[in-house]
């Protein structure tokens, strides 16, 4: 009888260990950053942060994404006002994504300490406190602002901070994803018009009901931009040299291709590029007609014209939104004289993913970041106000910004 009870107890212990592993195997990815990371309220749509839909890229049974981005924060203000809530929650095996550098030039100040030292001090604190909990910190440099310039392609608005992130990653021996370089390459690959009107919050009047008069903001991201840069982040995780970061690739959800065509070819000035999406995420398709071209509508992979929008604020017939299903598919932007293109694939999920963005575009080398030095910064110091003039708190959603080469918008 004792032997039977002993075996029963032993089995119970093994079973409890099995369930414990099942419960605690699920990890949380904490997203720490500013307004380009945060969740935005529905009334701000299509404005979204990179962390807002990031959870869709992962298997919900294995990963929880906790977006703790907070508008208007620099490394020091985030640490003082937001970090404690993250630090109290993280546990062994969790991941902590840390992305700052956009606001630090204006708000990352402390008396008697250089701004570079302030930035390094508080990033280091967040990294070390994450490590103390046996969590895995990942440093990410900020996504470039779409400030296209003829001389250096895209202006390095955030100056030394991307470089400081690289230096900190090396000194602290933590993994890094260089979104400064990757986003610069991507923005150059799609071009200025697409970057502004399809990725950033440059909206034409009449596109969305909550932006009746349009919007002009080349810093913040609309949903397409937030998803694009979130997607690039996951691509880097899949192939990362750090095995703990690369392991996240095993936790990701299935991805499905959405091919996008225009018919007849050349009728558009721009159209949403073909890409892939996880199930359940909202996909936004948009096209911009060339002068004199008449848009007839969006058509699905079966050749049927689609109607209705999953996003209630859409007003323009040039925009079609839908929830991604479990199959790869195709959509065609059909203009007068064109015909819908049928999807001929098998609908299967993707098995291969890009590992980066184009390295050479139109003869311009873009794989190395342009770093603004202190010396060259002095040359343009008289113009700095037009790039950095954030003011007036925006109800917890960052700061209002009203000038960058003609662009305006809420929030940092």
Automatic annotation (TrEMBL):
Keyword Membrane: yes
Domain SGNH hydrolase-type esterase: start-end pairs: 33-187
Keyword set, alphabetical order: Hydrolase, Membrane, Transmembrane, Transmembrane helix
Sequence ranges assigned to domain Bacterial repeat in this UniProt record: 259-336
Transmembrane segments: 12-31
Source domain of life: Bacteria
Pfam family, one: Lipase_GDSL_2
Family: Belongs to the 'GDSL' lipolytic enzyme family.
Name by which UniProt lists this protein: Lysophospholipase L1-like esterase
Source organism: Hallerella porci
């Amino acid at each position: 009888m004792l032997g039977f009870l002993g075996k029963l107890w032993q089995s119970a212990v093994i079973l409890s260990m099995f369930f414990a592993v099942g419960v605690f195997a699920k990890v949380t990815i904490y997203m720490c950053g500013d307004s380009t990371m945060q969740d935005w309220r529905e009334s701000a749509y299509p404005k979204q942060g990179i962390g807002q839909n990031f959870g869709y890229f992962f298997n919900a049974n294995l990963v929880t994404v906790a977006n703790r981005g907070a508008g208007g924060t620099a490394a020091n203000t985030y640490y003082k006002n937001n970090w404690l809530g993250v630090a109290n929650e993280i546990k062994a095996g969790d991941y902590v994504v840390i992305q700052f550098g956009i606001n630090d030039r204006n708000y990352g100040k402390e008396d008697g300490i250089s701004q570079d030292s302030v930035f390094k001090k508080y990033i280091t604190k967040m990294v070390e406190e994450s490590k103390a909990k046996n969590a895995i910190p990942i440093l990410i440099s900020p996504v470039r602002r779409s400030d296209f310039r003829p001389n250096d392609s895209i202006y390095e608005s955030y100056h030394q901070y991307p470089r400081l992130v690289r230096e900190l990653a090396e000194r602290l021996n933590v993994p890094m994803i260089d979104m400064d370089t990757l986003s610069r390459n991507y923005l150059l690959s799609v071009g200025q018009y697409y970057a502004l009107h399809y990725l950033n919050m440059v909206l034409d009047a009449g596109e969305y009901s909550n932006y009746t008069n349009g919007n002009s903001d080349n810093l913040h991201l609309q949903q397409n931009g937030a998803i694009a840069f979130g997607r690039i982040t996951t691509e880097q995780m899949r192939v990362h040299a750090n095995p703990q970061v690369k392991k996240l690739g095993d936790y990701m959800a299935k991805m499905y291709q959405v091919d996008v065509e225009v018919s007849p070819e050349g009728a558009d000035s721009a159209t949403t590029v073909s890409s892939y999406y996880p199930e359940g995420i909202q996909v936004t398709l948009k096209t911009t007609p060339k002068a004199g071209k008449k848009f007839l509508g969006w058509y699905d992979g079966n050749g049927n014209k689609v109607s209705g929008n999953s996003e209630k604020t859409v007003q323009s017939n040039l925009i079609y939104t839908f929830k991604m299903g479990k199959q790869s598919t195709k959509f065609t932007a059909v203009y007068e004289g064109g015909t819908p293109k049928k999807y001929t694939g098998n609908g299967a999920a993707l098995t291969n993913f890009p590992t980066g963005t184009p390295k050479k575009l139109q003869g311009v080398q873009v794989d190395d970041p342009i770093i603004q030095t202190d010396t060259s910064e002095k040359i343009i110091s008289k113009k700095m106000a037009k790039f950095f003039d954030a003011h007036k708190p925006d109800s917890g959603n960052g700061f209002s910004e009203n000038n960058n080469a003609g662009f305006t918008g809420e929030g940092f």
